[in-house]
Amino acid sequence: MKELLQSSGAKRKVLVVEDEWINREILANMLSEEYDVIFAENGQQAMDTIRRDGDSISLILLDLMMPVMSGEEVLKACKSDRDLSRIPVIVMTQEEKAEVSSIRAGADDFIKKPYNMPEVVLARCERIIDLYEKKRIIDSTENDPMTGLYTCDFFFEYIRQLERYSEAPMDAIVMDIEHFRLINEIYGRSEGDRILKRVASMIRSELNKSYGIACRSGDTFYIYHACTMDYCSLAESILGEIAADSFKCANIRLRIGINKSVDRNEPPEQWFDHAKLACDGLRGDYTKQLAYYDIATHDRQLYHERLIHDIDSAINNRDFTVYYQPKYGIAGERPVLKSAEALIRWKHPELGMINPVDFIPLFESNGLVQKLDRFVWEEATSKIAEWKDKFGFTLPISVNVSRIDIFDPDIEDRLMNLLDKNGLSTNELLLEITESAYSDSADRLIEVVNNLRNKGFRIEMDDFGSGYSSLNMLTTIPIDVLKMDMKFVSNMLKDEKSLKLCELVMDISRFLGVSVVAEGVEEKAQLDILKSMGCEIIQGFYFSKPLPADQFEELVRKEGELSEKNL
Q: Strand locations in 486-556, DSSP E?
């Protein structure tokens, strides 16, 4: 800081409190080249100057023996005041015995009279000023001004210092407020700040009872604590306080990730990275609010991060492939190929074939599924057009429309442009929307579905029966097809309840006047029962597993030849 001030021409201000004019002159000659020196002739004058200009004073040189108000009284007044105590004080006296008492009273250094060693005076002034300036910089970065908790940098440095003296088992905890950004957007930043302060206050209160420290980073809190805290009780206490107060947003959810008994062979930052992995794993899971880090969690999170990182290159390099699973009509004497469902598959160049269960829910949770959907739409419409040209007839293909797609303001134009590009009509591309999407953002969904149906698209409700609000939503959202959840079909031969639910779905479809597609059919007995119930469309391994485009094309060719033979 000294070099910066010198380059700007500015000087630190030093207050000399001395009743003897000759001593003031001596000190002025010593200090004026380095400092902006101001004077007070007695203690009362000094206090008036300090209270008026304290923010700009870098050092006080204080004589102890003065009229009106002594140096001891000035020192006591300064060190007992929170704001004034930030100014360092060097005591000046001829009394050697006064050195110890002055230091105990808060003085930062001691200079003996007479001032016959200018280099010593200057060196002591510079040393004390530098120490205090560095301390003020550290103090300013120690605490988060909003919550009073430590800042992250100070928090981790503090942990490193603690680790030098203690080997007690400790936990690393990460606590996060779910969807905090939406709280700020809906209720305003001031309300979000109030919530952060209340959570921080509760954490501080808990730490006051035990051994630990905490910091804040955005809407996330880091806690380093002895292995004794009841984290569930802490979360419940925080939520109870928020619910009992006058917050506009009472429906707040905390996620807590815990790295139990941290591994001291790892750096502190890594302890909390692990805890955050456990915390992030709870995102979107409303059945629990607490998760512990373990190696399996770590490996799974790393795997997910790898998949997220590789999605763009996989699309560009065509590591993703669209497979087609046929749907057969079973109303007649023999099954007839009616349409197919487009399904995404991923052959990773290093990881091999990746199960869709590993990446589709992951991409649905973070919105990246929209990239997959658009890839599938492009591939499917291109193949519909290609096969239409080859075989002289249209085989409709159904594609998935995810929840995130519903919020795309250009979804209708995007789909129509794909059809126009490939010379197709809306009855050649079927749209599947999962049941879970029907229970979210109903108003927007109703608007989009109505607009798509008005353009001629047929809408299928996928996985019907897997959610909790189907019957209610069916009264408000128009659909053309129900796709029966495959769990019902797979259990219908061994579970009476599943069989009854299949019958119920068929009854609902007849009441609504829509058709049913039964997924997951693997046995002839299942087919026969479904056919007896009136189900007309079947999809599942009994007929065919999902096939890559070339194998599916061969299947279409054989089906076409068989149809011609039977004519």
A: 515-518, 537-539, 547-548
CA pair distance 428, 394, nearest whole angstrom: 7
DSSP letters along 101-121, please? HHHHTT-SEEEESS---HHHH
Q: How far is CA 66 from CA 33, 74, 110, 140, 172, in A?
A: 26, 10, 17, 35, 56
Per-residue pLDDT tens for 457-499? 999 988 776 654 456 667 777 889 999 888 889 889 988 888 9
Q: Which residues of the chain have pLDDT under 50?
A: 1, 3-8, 468-469, 567
Q: Which fold has domain 152-293?
A: Alpha-Beta Plaits (3.30.70)
8 Å CB contact between 384 and 395: yes
Rounded Cα distance, 217 and 159, in Å: 16
Residue spans per domain, the chain:
2-141, 152-293, 311-566
Terminal-residue alpha carbon distance, the chain: 95
Q: How far apart are CA 336 and CA 311, in angstroms?
A: 37
Q: Which residues, in sequence order, are CB contacts of 464 under 8 Å at separation 6+?
A: 435, 470, 482, 483, 484, 485, 505
pTM tops 0.70, yes or no: no
Q: Which numeric CATH code is attached to 311-566?
A: 3.20.20.450
**Side-chain-facing half-sphere of 502: CA atoms under 13 Å:** 28
Upstream peptide bond of 114 is cis (omega within 30 degrees of 0): yes
Domain 2-141: which topology?
Rossmann fold (3.40.50)
DSSP lists the bridge partners of residue 65 as none
Separation of alpha carbons 212 and 226, rounded Å: 6
Q: What is the pLDDT of residues 346-379, one digit of tens each?
A: 999 999 999 999 999 889 888 899 999 999 999 9
Q: Are 363 and 311 in contact (CB under 8 A)?
A: yes
